[in-house]
Amino acid sequence: MDILFLCVVVFLFLLAIFDLSVGVSNDAVNFLNSAIGSKAAPFKRILIVASIGVFIGAAMSNGMMDIARHGIFRPEHFSFYDLICIFMAVMVTDIILLDMFNTLGMPTSTTVSMVFELLGATFVVSLIKMASDTTGLGFNDLLNTEKALSVIIGIFLSVAIAFIFGTLVQFLSRMIFSFNYKSRLKWKIGVFGGLCATAIVYFLLIKGAKDLTFMTPDVKQWIKANTLSVIGGCLVGFTIIMQLLHALKVNVLKVIVLMGTFALAMAFAGNDLVNFIGVPLTGLASYQDYMANGNGDAAGFLMGSLNGPSNTPLYFLIGAGGIMVAALATSKKARKVAQTEIGLGSQNAGDEMFGSSRLARRLVRWALSFIAWMRRVTPAGIRAWFNRRFNIDDTIMEQGAAFDLIRGSVNLVLAGALIAIGTSLKLPLSTTFVTFMVAMGTSLADRAWGRESAVFRITGVISVIGGWFLTAGVAFMGAGLIVLIMHYGGHWAMFALAMLTIFIIIRSNRRFRSQAAEETGDTLFQTILTTQDQSQAWQLLLVFITEQQRKFMAFTLENYRSITGAFTKEDVKALDKAETALSRQKETLKGSRRKETLCLRQVSREMAIEKSAWFHLGNNCCMAILYNLRRINEICKEHVDNNFMPLPQRYMQDFEMVRTQVTTLFNDTLAMIDGSHTDAVGTLRRQCDEIKDMVSDMYHKLHMQLSHGDAATIGVLYVYLNTLQETREMVSNLRKYLRAYAKLRDSEFSGRPQATAVPS
Known about the structure:
By secondary structure, this protein is mainly alpha-helical. It has 27 helices and no strands. The termini are far apart.
């Protein structure tokens, strides 16, 4: 049994390595987003600065793991076996939960996840002990619920305080500098840079470095006694330095952003390291105490020794720092999570990751009503002055940036200042929550949430905040369920859950890689949005549209063959699969249309007006073809699923001829799209007419037969009739699409001898 416990401890450390990776992938958004979004430096340079901060923060951490040792539970009342089950459940749940959020691209808090995992697992074990214990121990004796309550309060405080201050500070900053900030830096930049650098230093002293080894009690006391002097000296010194740097043509704003990135990265590694290695280290300490004093009684040996403090060996800290740096440099999931916040706060219109929600629509309506009222009561002169200061058309951003350096600086500096002030006032503000909500507040103040995007972005913010509370709930229940299985299942349950964890991790990473491969088209989309050459933008857009339409036509061909074949073979599983694929394709089409519409704004006005009608006609035809497929599948699935009469054999030959003709038509269409020419459009449109005529003849003959048909087959013939009708409509829609395809590429194209300029 002792060997089993040793294996569990080793497995906890293996999980900790992966936990460090997935944890950094999620929490990296706290210190990377502002630098990446503002393009303060090349991506590799940003990573180097952040990595240095992470490594220093991890290596110089004092390694106090008290929250995992006795912050949630009272260890003197728990046996070694109880704690081993709790620690195993916490690590398994944490990895699965964080990996799930990373895959979805949703930022969450590692502190929230760990606290509620420990709380959930301990709660279940406490219930077990209270049910079998005669000592009269209650929850107050076994659990420390104050920490969980402080985390919940921290969520609310972080969301409200960070968003409000982010909006106000960015509003004032924009009033001072405007969007054309470079013309107003001469004398203001020194003071602004001095304030920002001082705030960063204050953050490092109060929060970032408070748990590092050189921060002895004497040093902390000196800082506390001389805080005002330190801040005043830094303000004067940094103001002079920043003004000199500006005089030397150094971009002070980039310096501020990189300083803030370093500070937040160091604070994250120094303070949140316990979230990743605290549990396995406590497990190791528990195992060592058990082997020394437990006498083989795992279920009876109590772990009161964990009440004492414990310093983590330096090699653990250095190793953890190295793993975090490696994960930061290589993790693609970190970049996906980062894109969520950057996309929600982007100054430019782009692909909105989130849909619309009723709450978001209502909030936007209220906001628009309030803005309209403000405009009515505000004097015209003041409105004109504000409009000049907040003229988005004057925005100065680095090439490919989501927002400018002013906002990037405010994001980092204000987040650090709020966290530092919260720490000094003993307010449990979360780093993740503060940095995210500050970024959302600054984007609101910068008018980034326009009427075209506000609904989607508010929905995104609500989704992320909801995800934070979901983290707490899922962590609590997941860890509780797993520890229950382990407690009663013994070592076999531990082994099974370990294997399940490994399987989930492998499958998740494979799925993420496949999704990433499918999203490579987004590179072209982002290129179109950022290009300044309107003629180049149109050529790139044409390539993008063609690729999306080609994918859809290939999808249509595959699913038409699959659905009609499943109908004749009575394969209900294939019809179920097709139903799911068609639902997904509807969202894909909507997303593609939204992206293409955004890209159309990047081309010249004359080109957009000329091509707009054909662009929309092509998209409408694709959506209509999808509807035809859904109608065919819906009727066929209902018929086959109810085990009704199959299609009589005498109709099979004619139906197969239709399927063959339609297959040939779509294959020829795909070949034309692959060749990027319009020469075959006329031939394909005539082919469409021939198929329509053929299907019409079959339709009318079948309609006549129905009036004299056998009552036993009349049901399946109605399904067959519907399939023929929708097939005809699908071919008709393809014919319209072919004309739109040709006109989009060649304005002189005519499908008939008499050219028409307006789509019918």
